[in-house]
Amino acid sequence: MRPSSEPSDRRTAVQNGPLPDTLAPAPADRGRATWTRRHVLDLDDFTADELALVMDTADVMREVLARDVPRLPTLRGTTIVTLFYEPSTRTRASFELAGKALGADVINLSASGSSVEKGESLIDTVRTLQAIGADILVMRHHRSGAPYLAARHLRAAVVNAGDGWHAHPTQALLDLYTMRRHLGELRGRKVVIVGDIMHSRVARSNLWGLTTLGAQVVVCGPPTLIPTGLGRARHEGCETALPPVRVEHDLRRALEGADVVMALRLQTERMRAGLIPSLREYSRRYELTSERLRWAKPNALVMHPGPMNEGVEIAPDVAYSVQSRIEEQVTNGVAVRMAILYLLRTGRRAAA
Amino acid sequence: MTTAAASILIRGGHVIDPATGLDGRADVLLREGRVAEIGARLEAAGAWVFDADGLVVCPGFVDLHTHLREPGFEHKETIESGTLAAARGGFTTVCAMPNTDPPIDSRSVVEHVQRRAAERGRARVLVIGAVTKGRAGERLAELAELAEAGCVGFSDDGACVANAALMRNALAYASALGLPVIQHAEDPVLADGGVMHEGWVATRLGLRGQPAAAEEAIVARDIELAALTGGRLHLAHLSTAGSVALVRAAKARGIAVTAEVTPHHLTLTHMAVMRAGGGEGLAYDANARVSPPLREEADVAACLAGLCDGTIDAVATDHAPHADTDKLCEFDLAAPGMTGLELALGLLLRRVHEGSLPLRTAIARLTVGPVRALRLDERPGLAGLGTLAPGAPADVTVFDPGATWVVEPRALASKGKNTPFIGWELPGRVVLTVLAGRVVHAADGGLPA
Questions:
Q1: Hey, which residues does B400 pair with through a beta bridge?
Q2: Which H or E element spans position B258?
Q3: Do A146 and B203 touch (CB under 8 A)?
Q4: What pLDDT, on a 0 to 100 scale, did the predictor assign at position B280?
Q5: A166 touches chain B (CB under 8 A)
């Protein structure tokens, strides 16, 4: 079975304008996008075709999940280890469900209650997992770059389930997928990400994915929560140093004409670190309320990677409004992670 | 395993001695541990003769900033392995930094290092004492006793003397001892645990950055404190364009400030953290983690310009050897620092060959520059250090400026193989190093009988 070769009627329906071939190949061409990756560490080097391949595969996985018995035998005999150095609810459960739906054996390890607590180094831990026979390592780590270190020392595939402030590629993929399901092609669509961009791996991965797909991206927050250099076109002569986005500190100007508004969690330690005066002042300027949502396009999608601080970065009535796609993001997360696990295990074989 | 000969004649080399202005073909005669004579067609009965035709002959290099790691961290480096690395890199004098365990904050530790160096050293080891007790940044160490024991300056290197009042007192107190305070300029509050330069690469990698201003704020502050106290301030490893400008202005005001820069800050930018040797994917190269962090292109250019115009007095290696396990970990857990003694000449000669640094200037900043910055030639027995003037210590480095070599871990004498320059082809091979008339390194094993 090659899910990537199955044309999607929905996509055909929304492709009604002239689009550059490289960014939006005709459905018949999608089957030619091949999967060559050994790991999924970030979206910074994904092509538009590769992003489309993941999303097309996720479409098939959604169909599988809708069946009476939502199971495929594709990864039978495959061992997936989830190694989490940080607590997580949805990401970990989502990967576990995805692996089981594909017939894989899934082992969950946490940094607490394992040899990590005894001071074992990351390298030793991943080598042990390899010796046990892990085929895919799904890894969450509080230090940026840790999955890259693991990938360099492992034969197994590494999926980054979030590293420090750096990247969270499967979250970004499910965000892109959720947007695509509602908006079709993302080229030219205005996507606004509001909040703590500086410390957000979700934002970083989304910026790469969105700009690769041609979306017009605006990030919005106080200057203390915007990382250095973002928004500048060139860096030391290099134009591809950072994703090309616009930085806006005023929420109203940011939201004008937005197709998608994504609010990010504001962690209370940012206040203690002196980056914002108070949660009260933050919410007065940046909370996504129903009144402010009217500055965006009618029916603009509302998204949030969770977990939410209702009343800080997003008002409860907005989070649970008809425009909200927050619950659907979670559901789509399982399909997208099935697609990633499937492609990592079978894509390279199929492409060979 | 050094070899002594009563006299050594280095014949036919291109002699460059920036202090005396000598820059041409000449013979150098060393006798009884001193420079005896420089001239054409010298003869010396019974001397060991070294043919230096086609080679550069210059004063032995002086490193103001060396981490020898002993006592306490002998798995990273020892005085023996560190000074062997020095000799192989052309350095005949190294100044040992006090961030050992125990730190060099008392006479007994100073004397321990001096004794080990006398027993095992292949280079002259001068000791830098701590500014504060335990390098804790709280109370002054017994600076006068450290001076009596032979310390050539005071530094809490690795840590900044962050408390402005304490730094003022250190400069004032040390001024009566005739010694400089060497500052690792990094405001810890502003640096805030940043593990690399704050710029677009840190943004891209999701790593906590520390802004250039964390260095510049301390440089500016300490220049004013030097002016206030009349103390001598030496700034370790300058890394930003703003720091260079501050030092240039301070020197123009006549303030007693000197400065050094490392070969890696003259070569690499923060890009090295992201991309190691052109490899694919993000590197998070722990070998590029260093303090102060690698900065931006404009900073590298400003440091080079400052070195050329004399704003920066010396090239110092900040040789910081670490064990493999100190680097084989997550980037922000990696120990900062690079091995440096054996790479310094090659990295400077890269700049020379590309035309951005005159050879004479490069040699000056490795010899007379550092000596005068810390006034090492005013110490007993060291008159003329860093020069080839008659009567100076017979410290000579001979190198082949055209020969190239490839940096490989096993080729390094230092225990520290931690360098982002692995695989680089560097120009300049040190073929002979002479310390006080003794051959401490000879590339082809051609030792005098």
A1: B429
A2: strand B257-261
A3: no
A4: 59
A5: yes
Nearest to B205 among A122, A144, A236 (CB): A144
Query: What's the rounded Cα separation, in Å, for the pair B409 and B405?
Result: 12
| Backbone phi and psi for residue B340, each to the nearest 5 degrees, phi listed first | -145, -25
Strand partners, A105: A79
What domains can you pick out in chain B, each with its CATH number? 60-378 (3.20.20.140)
Name the nearest CA neighbour of A71 among A104, A32, A49: A104
CATH of domain A169-326: 3.40.50.1370
The answer for residues whose C-beta is within 8 angstroms of residue A276's C-beta and 6 or more apart is: A222, A224, A225, A266, A270, A282
pLDDT digits (tens, 9 = 90+) for B413-442: 999 999 999 999 999 999 999 999 999 999
Q: Touching check for A1 and chain B: CB below 8 Å? A: no
Query: Among B318, B377, B395, B400, which one carries the catalytic annotation?
Result: B318
Residue A96 contacts by C-beta under 8 Å, 6 or more apart in sequence? A82, A106, A108
Alpha carbon B364 to chain centroid distance?
13
- Tens of pLDDT along B169-226? 999 999 999 999 999 999 999 999 999 999 999 999 999 999 999 999 999 999 999 9
Same CATH topology for A3-7+16-167+331-351 and A169-326: the answer is yes
Mutate which of B190, B201, B284 to disrupt the A interface (most A C-beta within 10 Å)?
B284
CB-CB under 8 Å, A204 with B325 = no
The domain limits of chain A are 3-7+16-167+331-351, 169-326
Across A46-52, average pLDDT? 97
Q: Under a CB-based contact definition with an 8 Å cutoff, are residues A2 and A60 in contact? A: no
- Which residue in the set A149, A165, A241 is minimally distant from B206, CB to CB? A165
CA angle A120, A126, A129 (to 5 degrees): 110
Nearest CA-CA distance, residue B79 and chain A, Å: 29
Query: Do the Cβ atoms of A144 and B284 come within 8 Å?
Result: yes
Q: What is the CA radius of gyration of chain A?
A: 20
Is the CB of residue A225 less than 8 Å away from at least one CB of chain B? no
**Is the Cβ pair B284, A145 closer than 8 Å?**
yes
With beta carbons under 8 A apart, name residues in chain B contacting A124: none
**pLDDT value for A32:** 56
CA B404 to chain CA centroid, nearest Å: 22
Q: Whose structure tokens read 């390094």? A: B412
Residue A105 in 3-state DSSP?
strand
Cβ–Cβ contact A235 with B under 8 A: yes
How many Å lie between the alpha carbon of B222 and the closest alpha carbon of chain A?
27
Residues B340, B343, B344: CA angle, nearest 5 degrees: 80
Could you report the per-residue pLDDT of B213-271, keeping only the tens digit for each? 999 999 999 999 999 999 999 999 999 999 999 999 999 999 999 999 999 999 999 99
Kindly indicate whether the domain formed by A3-7+16-167+331-351 is annotated with CATH number 3.40.50.1370.
yes
Name the residue of chain A whose CA is nearest to B274's CA: A145
* Average pLDDT of span A2-26: 35
For residue range B343-396, what is the model confidence (pLDDT) as tens digits?
A: 999 999 999 999 999 999 999 999 999 999 999 999 999 999 999 999 999 999
d(CA A108, CA A93): 10
Q: What is the dihedral of CA B134, B135, B141, B145, to 10 degrees?
A: 80
**Lookup result for tokens 């560097």:** B426
The dihedral through the CA atoms of A339, A341, A342, A345 has a sign that is positive
What is the distance between the alpha carbons of residues B192 and B293, in angstroms, rounded to a whole number?
13
Which of B 323-352 lie inside 8 A of A, CB atoms?
325, 328-333
Cis geometry, peptide bond prior to residue B380 (ω within 30 degrees of 0): no
Q: Would the pTM count as exceeding 0.90? A: yes
8 Å CB contact between B343 and B419: yes
Nearest chain B residue (CA) to A143: B330
